Amino acid sequence: MNNILIRHLTWVSVFAASSAQAANPQFQSFFDQACSNATGNMATRCSGPTGSNLSGDSESSLTPSQMLSAGDASLLTAESKALDSGELLKIGPLSVAFNISTGELDADDRDGSNAERGYTADISSFAMTFDYRHSEQLVSGAILSFERSELEFDALEPSGSPFTPQPRAGRYETDGIAITGFAQYTTSTGVFADASIGYTDLSHDFERNSVYQPSSRVSQLDVSTEADADGQRLSLHVRAGKSIQLGAWSVSPQTSVMHVNTTTDSYREKDTNNSGLAMRYKRYKQDSLLGIVGTSLQRAFSTDFGVISTQLRADYQREFERDDEEVDAIFVNDSGGTVFTLAGDDPDKSYVRAGLSVVALLAQGWSLYLDYEQLFGNSEYDQYRGTLGFRKEL
After folding, report:
1. Strand order in the sheet with 279-281
2. pTM, to two decimals
C-alpha cells in the first residue's frame, strides 16, 4: 500500500469566487487522492454529483488545523511556571506550600492569512510544593501539580455563497499531572543558581466540527468527530543570577535556559454522525528551547502583622528551537492511506513576560502570596495568569 504524501505548506490561498472564505487547493488535492481509495460513508461523499470536488469553504473547514494547537497550552504553561520563583525565602528547614492559579490564553489574532485557527483557552492549575533547607546555601524540593486547559476554536465566518459553518470549529480539554524536582544554591555574596526537571502526563479530549459541501453548494453536511489521546511533557530549566542590595531595594539580574518537549501520541477520531470523514493522526511533538534574560526588583516593608515583600519582574525570552509544528492526518476510510501533512504558523521568536507579586510573612511560619503575570509582544498569543497561595514552615 503506497502512501501519498501531500505537503501542506500554507493553509490559505485567495479564493477567486464570491465566497468570503479562502479555499485550500492542497486539501482538495489530498481529498481527490483519498477518494480514489475511499470505503464506507466516505465513498458516498466522494460519489456525489460533483464527485470529490469540494467548495472552497468546505476545503478550509475540513482541514484539521485544530490539531496543530494541541500542545500550545501545555507548552506555555510550562514556560510560565518555570519563572515563578526567584530566590526561595528563608523561613525554615522544611516547608509545604499550596497554590491555585487561573488564566487565559488567547490566539484570536489569527485570521485568514494564518495556517492555524484562532482560539481561546482557559487554564487552571493546583500545586503542592515541599522544600527542605539543607543549609543557609542549599534548598531542594519537589512540586506535585494538576493542570487543566479548556480550549475552544473560533468558527469560520459565514460566507456570501450558501455555506453555514458550525457554531464552533472544535474544542479540546487537556488534563495534566506533573512532578517536578528542583534545587537552589545561594552564596554569601548573593549569587544564586537553580535547576528544575519535570515530567507531566497529559490526557487530551478532542472535538472537531467541520462542514462537508460539494462544489455545487446546493447542500452541506455537518461533520463532527471526537477523540481521546495521551501525551507527555518533559521540561528542564537552569538559571543563575545575583541578588544585589541597593538600600531598601533588592535587584536580581538573572539568565536562564529552558527546554520543553511536548508529545501527543497517535490517535483516531470517532465519527459521531457517520459522515465517513473522521481522521487518524500520527504521533507528533513540539520542541522549545528558550534563552531568558531578566531581572526582578524587590522591597520589603515591616507592618504590625508581619513583613510584606513586593516584587516586580520582567524577562525577555528568545526561542531558539521551536519551528512550525507538523501533523500527519489520514482519513480513516481511505484504504490507500493518503497522508496530509499540516504545517502550522512560524512561532514568534521573541517576547516578554512580566509579573508582580506580593508575599506576606506572618507569625508562626505562615506566608501568603499573590502573583499576576502577563505575556507581552507575542504576535501569536495573549496570555495572563493569576496565582494565590500560602506556605507553612513545618
Report:
1. 5-8, 339-343, 326-331, 279-281, 267-268
2. 0.86
